[in-house]
Every structure is written in structure tokens, then in C-alpha cells.
Amino acid sequence: MMNGRVVKGIGFKDLRDAGDPVELASYYFQQGADEIVFLDVTASYEKRDILINVVERTSDSIFIPFTVGGGIRSLEDIRRILCSGADKVAINTAAVKDPNLIQQCARMFGSQCIVSSIDIKRVYLADETEAPERVILETPRGKCWWSIYIYGGRQEVNRDAIKWAEKVVELGAGEIVVSSLDFDGTKQGYDITFLRELSQRVSVPIIGSSGAGIPEHILEALTVGNADAALAASIFHYGTYTVREVKEYLAEHGVLVRL
Amino acid sequence: MIDADAIVLPGVGAFQEAIKNLRPISDVILDQIQEGKPLLGICLGLQLLFTTSTEGGLHKGLDIFKGKVVQLPLHVKVPHMGWNTLRIVKPDSPLFEGISGGAYVYFVHSYYGDVENEDEIVSKTYYGTDFASALSKDQIFATQFHPEKSGVTGLQILKNFVEYVGS
């Protein structure tokens, strides 16, 4: 969302208008979505009231869990958003800058309210010795480790994403949502290698975000990637597939889904 | 509360803190229930109705459902957070009017109520163990899941409670 409108882009750039968030959330709820996630990318911090208004109106219209993220900086922000009707908050930048925030939130509101949002990007290498402290894995596109990004994909933080994810869980994050800057908006699928590795290392639910172009990508994320949930945006916002169609596809392929 | 048609006891959080906050009005609640006022407990609200809870020590609840609140087995990811299915044991319960077996509802909990009287169980759900996902006793109902987060199924359950209160 930006300034109260839904937007969609590629690699977090070139944002285009895709509708009213409350209407869309309501539509997806009726279509059978299990959860809704709002990510607010509004640049101006002063426009915060627009977000609160959207959250309040949404909680009046939908009756499934919904998570709000984007620019959440403090405990007060979190309290406001939860009190407006959101079930969980997703935090990225603020947690990287002050990891204690996660711990404080978990203590105050419970781990089940705190989703750690991690934006990842691959750093390819020819040779493992180039990055001795990093978790390096073989992918179909080459050997790499994953670096993290903050400020909506605008700033790189030279830190291992796998290790950061393990850290946030230690601090009390209840879930992790992973967005890939390499795959976001490309319709080429999710970062399966990363998801699978992470699922073996942490005991909290992992939500794969970014990259779905066809239902098969979602199936892959949930099976090969071993993610607990898959988040998709543009394939739904542009009407390429409906939530119902994707769920039916998953059920046909042996995934336990709520229909 | 005395003028209300029914009482709803919601809850997310920890037993100890909640029961402490509830103490000042627990006598009123118990009186109202004695007089036949309907009550719906949700999630932690279900657990507060039990005799005791083992969360954070041993604590006393409202003792409406005889039994103990215990932790989910540790061989599964805790908290139990997500959608799971109902196995309806008492299909003619007013709470589940129009709800089919196998319906999905949304859970967020680490503890569950182990009720002594099996007849009070309305539905069971499996997560590491078979636990009671809904209970009823006279005009008192309780769900371990969150009907307000369980989509159309949840809304129907809430509607059923409201209609029960009205009748």
C-alpha cells in the first residue's frame, strides 16, 4: 500500500496503482484467503493516520488474521496498529537497527503478534573462501549467500540473512516472512533454496513472499521450499488467478488446504 | 454486566495475568451464570473457566469446567498457530448449527483444557494430541479457537451463540 492505495511493482520499484486496500482485502477474504498482509510503503511518516484508518476499516470487514507492516518503528506504533484491529505486525528495518525491539514486543504483546520481515538478496560467489562467515549454498544459478536489505529494499546491510533469521527467532519473533529482491515481481517463483534452508534451522512458521507467477510456484514453495505459508500479491491483484483457483490447484496436488 | 443478555470472555495472553485481572468481577460472573446467563469463552477465555491451569505455575480458574489446563505436547511446534479442523462430537449443539465436520477454524494457543467430563466436549481437534476445541455445559460455551478469526465458519458460530442467547 502507498498513501492508502494498493500498489504493485517489480523488485520494490515502479509502483503502480492496484486498488482500494479494504475492498481488496474483503474480496480476498470472501475468496477464501487464509490471511491478509498489508505492507505500507508510504514514504512520509506523517501519513501514518491513513494506515490506521485502513486497518480499522479492514478489521470491520474481514474475519481472518491480518498482519500489518511497513515503517513500524516503535512499541507505540505497534500498540496503535494492534489496537486498530490488526492481529500481527511485521517489522524489518526497526528490528535490524535495534534487535531489542523484537524482544520488547514479544514480552509486551506476545510472540504470536510479531512477524519478522526479512528482505533478502543473493550475493553470488565463485569461491566459498570469499565469504567465510556466511551461510553459502548451491542454487541453480550458482553458489551464493544472502544479504539483508532494509528501508523497503533501498539499503543493503552486510549481514547474513540466515543468521539474522535465527537471531530474530531467539529474540521472540513468532513468524518470519521472507521477501526476495531477486524474485519479487518477476513471476519466476520464490527463493526455494533459501526457504528450504531456513525451514531446517528455525522452529517458527516461515512465509515465503515474492515471486509467484503461476500456482506451481506456490506449490513449490510449500513442498520443495518447505515453507509453512506462501504470500502472493501481483498474481491476485491483476486477476491472473483467483485465491480459489490456487487453493484448488494445491489441493489437487496433495497440499492440505482450507477450502 | 448484570444488564447484559450474555457474557463473552475473550482472551489472548497468559493465564496468570488474566485471572488476576478477572478476580474483582469473578464473583459477579459466577452469580450471573448461576442465574442462567449465557456465557461464551474464547481461547484464553475457555481456559479461565477451568479448575486450574499449569501456565506459569499452578493457578486457580473459575472452576466451571472441572479439569486442568496443560501445555500442548512439545514434539509439535508451539504455539499451535494456524488453521485446523473440527471433529464435531456433539452435532446437535446449538453452537455448531450449520457447521460441518472437518470445518477449518483458526487457533493461536500453547495450552489446552483437559476436561474431566467427556460429555462437555462439543468438538475435538488434533495437534500433537487430541484436545477439546469446543466445550459446553448448560448455557456456557467455550472455544479454544478464535471464531472472530475463522472466516465464515467462525462468523456462523458467533451467530449461533447470539441466536441461542435470543431464544
CATH C-level label of chain A: Alpha Beta
- Taking strands numbered 1, 2, ... along the chain, how are they ordered across the largest sheet of chain B? 1-2-12-11-10-7
Element order of chain B: H for helix, E for strand: EHEHEEEEEEEEEEH
Uncertain ranges of chain A: none
**How many helical stretches of chain B?**
3
In total, how many domains does the architecture of chain A comprise?
1
Distance between the termini of chain B: 19 Å
The CATH first-level class of chain B comes to Alpha Beta
Low-confidence stretches of chain B: none
Query: Within the CATH hierarchy, at the fold level, what is the topology of chain A?
Result: TIM Barrel
Proper CATH architecture of chain B: 3-Layer(aba) Sandwich
The CATH architecture name of chain A reads Alpha-Beta Barrel
Assign an overall shape of chain A: globular
If you compute it from the alpha carbons, what radius of gyration of chain A comes out, rounded to the nearest whole angstrom?
A: 17 Å
Descriptive report:
The complex is a heterodimer of chains A (259) and B (167). Helices cover 36% and strands 25% of the residues of chain A. By secondary structure, chain A is of the alpha/beta class. Chain A has a single domain, classed as Aldolase class I (TIM Barrel, Alpha-Beta Barrel), CATH 3.20.20. In chain A, the strands form 2 sheets. In chain A, strands 3, 4, 5, 6, 7, 8, 9, 10, 11 and 12 form a 10-stranded mixed β-sheet that branches. Chain A has a two-stranded antiparallel ribbon with strand order 1-2. With 167 residues, chain B is of the alpha/beta class. Chain B has one domain: Rossmann fold (3-Layer(aba) Sandwich), CATH 3.40.50. Helix content of chain B is 24%, strand content 34%. Chain B has a 6-stranded mixed β-sheet. A 4-stranded mixed β-sheet of chain B has the order 4-3-5-9, covered by helices on one side. In chain B, a hairpin with a 2-residue loop joins strand 11 and strand 12. Chain B is globular, with a radius of gyration of 15 Å. The two termini of chain B are 19 Å apart. In chain B, 40% of the residues are buried. Classes of the chains: A alpha/beta (259), B alpha/beta (167). The interface between A and B is medium-sized, with 17 and 17 residues.
